[in-house]
Amino acid sequence: MDRFVSILASGITSGAIYALIALGIVLLQNATGVINFAQGDLLTLGAYIGSFWVVSMGFGQLPMYVVVLAALFAVGVLMERVGYAPLRNRSPLTIVISTFALGLALRAVILLWQGSDPKNLPSPAGENTLNVAGAAVPYQSLITIVVTVIVGGLLFLAFQRSALGRQVRALAADREAALLQGVRVKRLSPVVFGLSAALAGLAGVLVAPIVSITPTLGFGLLLSAFAAVILGGERLGGVAFAAMLVAMAQALLGAYLSPGFIDAYPFLILVVVLALRPQGLVRMVSGVRF
């Protein structure tokens, strides 16, 4: 029983990380139509900034979260100015390649700044664990899950109640109609790029105490998050649900079937689900009016 609880806790923790990455991807895709392939490298950058702030500079843990969110928001806005705004009228493929190139550039900057040696970021809760049904669950896992639930709830409220949220939802439901109604994507896109990057940075500082920080940290996580995005559709709740499903299935299959294929399980799950339900787990937004 304790092993099952431990595996379940690990799966939910991974699901929380996938959800933060996937929410950033869907948020940006709904508002601008862009799939950001740099999302994983933004996560990596957030983890490195957190490690630099706490380990190298010796500053506090709590201010670190504010610094990382602010820095990644600024990086996201910069990416919009450099990699999206000049290409706004070009084909979607051109913009996707642009985000991919920006991700590689971020990785190169990280390598020049911090080198290739693994870094670490201590958890604000230390090595302490909570006993749950005989399993020792790290407090960092609980922090990750709680923070993700709070951020997800705040995002949901913001996109239900705020003007920004209504505009993003209008663009997601019917882009052409939203543009004709006066939704200004040019003003919206820097903010959404910044929010999306900040979500990736938050995921970075939450996962960094659990794993070693390397320049490719975000790449594998991004691939699993993509599986959640495809399964979850364009709704934030659907994507969060799919992220949890993918991560928990990945953890259980890795523990009880074969750990050698743990990186492949998200894609096997994706293939199986799409074969049974081609529309994904959640109905797409298209055709829905808010």
Automatic annotation (TrEMBL):
<keyword id="KW-0813">Transport</keyword>
<feature type="transmembrane region" description="Helical">
    <location>
        <begin position="217"/>
        <end position="233"/>
    </location>
</feature>
<keyword id="KW-1003">Cell membrane</keyword>
<feature type="transmembrane region" description="Helical">
    <location>
        <begin position="91"/>
        <end position="113"/>
    </location>
</feature>
<protein>
    <submittedName>
        <fullName>Branched-chain amino acid transport system permease protein</fullName>
    </submittedName>
</protein>
<keyword id="KW-0812">Transmembrane</keyword>
<keyword id="KW-0029">Amino-acid transport</keyword>
<dbReference type="GO" id="GO:0022857">
    <property type="term" value="F:transmembrane transporter activity"/>
</dbReference>
<keyword id="KW-0472">Membrane</keyword>
<dbReference type="InterPro" id="IPR001851">
    <property type="entry name" value="ABC_transp_permease"/>
</dbReference>
<dbReference type="InterPro" id="IPR052157">
    <property type="entry name" value="BCAA_transport_permease"/>
</dbReference>
<feature type="transmembrane region" description="Helical">
    <location>
        <begin position="139"/>
        <end position="159"/>
    </location>
</feature>
<dbReference type="Pfam" id="PF02653">
    <property type="entry name" value="BPD_transp_2"/>
</dbReference>
<feature type="transmembrane region" description="Helical">
    <location>
        <begin position="191"/>
        <end position="211"/>
    </location>
</feature>
<feature type="transmembrane region" description="Helical">
    <location>
        <begin position="62"/>
        <end position="79"/>
    </location>
</feature>
<comment type="similarity">
    <text>Belongs to the binding-protein-dependent transport system permease family. LivHM subfamily.</text>
</comment>
<dbReference type="GO" id="GO:0005886">
    <property type="term" value="C:plasma membrane"/>
</dbReference>
<dbReference type="GO" id="GO:0006865">
    <property type="term" value="P:amino acid transport"/>
</dbReference>
<feature type="transmembrane region" description="Helical">
    <location>
        <begin position="6"/>
        <end position="28"/>
    </location>
</feature>
<feature type="transmembrane region" description="Helical">
    <location>
        <begin position="40"/>
        <end position="56"/>
    </location>
</feature>
<keyword id="KW-1133">Transmembrane helix</keyword>
